[in-house]
Amino acid sequence: MSASRLPRAPRQKVDGVVLLDKPCGMSSNAALQTVRRLYNAAKGGHTGTLDPLASGLLPLCLGEATKFSQMLLDADKSYVARVKLGVTTTTADAEGEVLNVRPVLADDEAVSGVVAQFSGEIEQIPPMYSALKRDGKALYEYARDGVTLERAPRQVTIHEISAGPLEGDEFDLAVRCSKGTYIRTLAEDIGERLGCGAHLVALRRTAIGPFGIESSVPLLQLESGEDARALALRSADLLVSHLPEVPLAPDAAGSFLHGQAVAAPLPPGATECRVFAEGRFLGLGRVDVDGRLAPRRLIATAAGA
């Protein structure tokens, strides 16, 4: 049998979270599959996509950690974007075809003044080049077929926003925003309000919830060897680390893992907890009406599965 036809090694049960610094030019799914291959992990998922154009923080969940990937979907996110004034494109970023070119008459004061108007709760019309679905089909698929559909405005919240100085017709935009915010649309709307149009030429995600880019690992580092990958693999409970920790004795842990509510030393006011026994993460528990800890989402490997 030739080397190219040798059977691939069986995938392994790998449980944990990798805070990846995704490079530009790679889709989120391609990044996930690359990391799965590096860890030879049987299962994986991400916590929300980044456009191929964008770089930055992309938390990836492997194995049992995928059970908690939804926890970051509602989290606030931070970005640094590079905005080019005077040019609009079909996709509102540098990957699209140019639609219009207009003169730029704005100065730093005008840009800062308009950018400040987008602070707080605003409405956005989702772009056609997005993964939102209509009748089971992504909007970008309609857009590629030359079809434009009506889209209802969506309310999002811009917690913080600021503009750097103009460098020619470009400036840096720093944003901390709620889930569902399209930075491409934000840049486009700022450009329209300035009367010249705009599009994104670069985008970098710098934070999601409590996790910052400083905690992330570049893909090249993961590819450098097993030691680097072992250091980068974080605990499966990382995405729920904001919840209080509750230890269980072995007998109680056995009952808990079999779906039974148990008595536990609960922190005051706790409603949901991370549950451990002898240093093992068992999963999440929820405090029931009787003040006992009931299983909510269990880690299969905790029971030896």
Automatic annotation (TrEMBL):
It is an enzyme of class 5 (isomerase). Keywords: Isomerase, tRNA processing. Its EC number is 5.4.99.25. One of its GO terms (molecular function) is tRNA pseudouridine(55) synthase activity. The active site is at D51 (nucleophile). Residues 36-183 form the Pseudouridine synthase II N-terminal domain. It comes from the Bacteria. The keyword Repeat does not apply. It catalyses: uridine(55) in tRNA = pseudouridine(55) in tRNA. Residues 184-224 form the tRNA pseudouridylate synthase B C-terminal domain. Transmembrane segments: none annotated. InterPro entries: PsdUridine_synth_cat_dom_sf, PsdUridine_synth_N, PUA-like_sf, PUA_sf, tRNA_psdUridine_synth_TruB, tRNA_sdUridine_synth_fam1_C, TruB_C. Pfam families: TruB-C_2, TruB_C_2, TruB_N. Belongs to the pseudouridine synthase TruB family. Type 1 subfamily. Responsible for synthesis of pseudouridine from uracil-55 in the psi GC loop of transfer RNAs. This is tRNA pseudouridine synthase B. It comes from Niveibacterium umoris.
